[in-house]
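ARCHIVE CARD
Drawer: 12
Card no.: 0347
Subject: one protein chain, sequence and derived structure
Cross-reference: see card 0346
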Amino acid sequence: MKLTDHPDAKAFILHWGEMGTQWGVNRSVAQVHALLYLSNRPLPADEIVDQLALARSNVSNALKELQGYGIVRRVHVEGDRRDHFVAETDLWEMLMRIVAERKRREVDPTVALLGELAARLSRDDAAPPQVRERIVRMHEFISTLGDWYDQVRTLPKPTLVTLMKLGSKVARFIPGNSKG
């Protein structure tokens, strides 16, 4: 029996594909990830093609992208010459890898560009003041967000879990904060 024959597995895979599009990820990429995440064994590409009814090229591209994120890896299965693939199943590890890659692809280039623009604008007397101020503010904000991430990602998983569970209660540890 194929994993996709189970209605709840199929529902998860289809939903993960839909959510992927909302997160800016190709539907096929998200569906391949979902199938590998649910699988209890490594899958060869031809089986992924069969289970998801996707074109071989879509599966091949999806596997490359997922490997680029570090959330799927190629493994060897003894007695089988084909490449097989498995997904990361540790949810924290998966989250941290996805966030690190998105930061590298999206946030870091934005911080670099905003830094260049802010430096140029600081020397440009003809620039409208609100443009200078808003770009500098945006640069500071996104840089601070990136710096915060770089600090948080080094925390041990149990500390991250505790911080997440604390939610807004963490504010009570900030001096001068009356809420919490």
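Annotation on reverse: The longest strand covers residues 80-87. The chain has a mean pLDDT of 93.
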